[in-house]
Write a structure and sequence with these properties.
It is built from 14 helices and 13 strands. The protein is an alpha/beta fold. Strands 6, 7, 8, 9, 10, 11, 12 and 13 form an eight-stranded mixed sheet that branches. Strands 2-3-1-4-5 form a five-stranded parallel sheet, with helices on both faces. Helix 2 crosses helix 5, helix 3 packs antiparallel against helix 5 and helix 13 packs across helix 14. The longest helix has 24 residues. It is elongated and about 80 Å long.
């Protein structure tokens, strides 16, 4: 299963994008529809809402008068918090049930969730944000019969447009006509179909948002999208993801991934079976520095990284990392991962035996990550990283 998040502000046209993705084969877990089902007349959720907000939110048949609820909660943060406390636990249970239906399949499952930015989820391979300028959003919502003042009040109560865009791995601009939207959805669909499946026991569960540390990435994790595939959520550039420089270390292609092997044919025709795949690492170097990025992580995410990078040693580099002026690290430690001695020894043995290689897809992934950071960062990556002394190879696929 490839779990993808879909979100967008009021008037963005998220529901249309959701329908277009469904037409292309996606399974849709629609949080809005789940909320409507849970709030049908006579349900426990509706009873709890009436007890909190009064019977004036119900019509004569016991159905919710949604505009009445909206008037209350979108102008009162305490009321909105209480509403969420009633609705969210029941919603999460049903969201999880629907996601789990597809856990052992190869389908793209789209979690259509308007509050995805405010309530991040675990295990998302990508996050699609449907975006329009605010005035277009207001115009479209008014055309659907909403009061302009209500629309603007809702926009004010939601995540800011720039913050919503910042969590995206894919932004779909819906400011044009339907033909333009279909074309953009087609491009995004082709991209998300190729994403690796997320293997996790807690797919779709609410993410713990308490950050306990920063992690410095100097390879593929320089890209927010690549980092998202590693930690299960998108770190928000400018808020919990920043460009950074680490002094006192040099970047090298010097790490033999002990638990990953591969087979390939070298350019000279030599066949290598069960060769050692080499990745990036760091070495102590007082006169060098490497560019990269830092991302804040939760305790669970840090533990996952420790497991993922178990052939690396996690080291505290708080005093060696430089970030832009005005970036507040909140007093949290900064860690990075340095190859363990035995991992480097494995690399050296494989290098000397001619059985080490860099997977071409990983080589390209790192290059693309720095390209996302900017052409200047990409050039600096190349300028500060010595050429590898093992070949770049096309590993046989199973």
């Amino acid at each position: 299963m490839i779990l993808v998040g879909l979100t967008g502000g009021i008037g963005a046209g998220k529901s249309t994008v959701s329908k277009l993705l469904a037409e292309r084969g996606a399974a849709i877990v629609d949080a809005d529809q789940i909320a409507r089902d849970l709030q049908a007349p006579g349900t426990p959720v509706v009873a709890a809402m009436a007890e909190r907000f009064g019977d004036q939110i119900l019509d004569a048949d016991g159905a919710l008068i949604r505009p009445e609820v909206a008037k209350i909660v979108f102008s009162d943060k305490a009321a909105l918090k209480d509403l969420n406390g009633i609705v969210h636990p029941a919603m999460q249970s049903e969201i999880q049930r629907q996601i789990d239906e597809h856990r052992d399949t190869d389908r793209v499952v789209v979690l259509d969730f308007p509050l995805l930015g405010e309530n991040p989820r675990k295990g998302l391979a990508a996050t699609i944000v449907v975006d329009v300028p605010p005035e277009i959003a207001v115009e479209r919502a008014v055309e659907r019969g909403m009061e302009e003042s209500d629309v603007r009040q809702r926009i004010e109560s939601q995540m800011r447009r720039e913050d919503r865009r910042a969590i995206a791995t894919h932004v779909i601009d819906n400011s044009g006509d339907l033909d333009a939207l279909v074309s953009r959805v087609e491009r995004v669909w082709a991209q998300i179909r190729t994403l690796p499946a997320t293997e996790s026991s807690d797919l779709g569960e609410p993410a713990d948002t308490t950050r306990v540390a920063w992690v410095f990435g100097y390879g593929s994790l320089v890209s927010p999208a690549s980092l998202a595939r590693t930690i299960g959520r998108l770190a928000r550039p400018g808020r919990d993801f920043h460009a950074a420089v680490l002094g006192g270390f040099g970047r090298r292609w010097n790490y033999g991934v002990g638990h990953v092997s591969g087979s390939w044919t070298s350019d000279d025709g030599t066949r290598v079976d069960d060769g050692t795949i080499v990745a990036l690492g760091l070495v102590r170097a007082d006169d060098e520095a490497v560019n990269g990025a830092i991302a804040s992580v939760t305790e669970a995410e840090l533990a996952d990284l420790d497991h993922r990078e178990r052939s690396y040693d996690r080291v505290d580099v708080s005093d060696l990392v430089a970030v832009a002026e005005g970036v507040d690290l909140g007093g949290l430690a900064v860690f990075t991962f340095v190859p363990a001695v035995d991992a480097v020894e494995r690399y050296e043995r494989a290098r000397d035996a001619g059985t080490a290689g860099i997977r071409r897809t990983y080589w390209d992934l790192v290059d693309d990550a720095f390209a996302v950071a900017g052409e200047g960062e990409r050039r600096r990556f190349h300028d500060t990283t010595p050429e590898p002394d093992v070949p770049i190879v096309d590993v046989d696929e199973d």
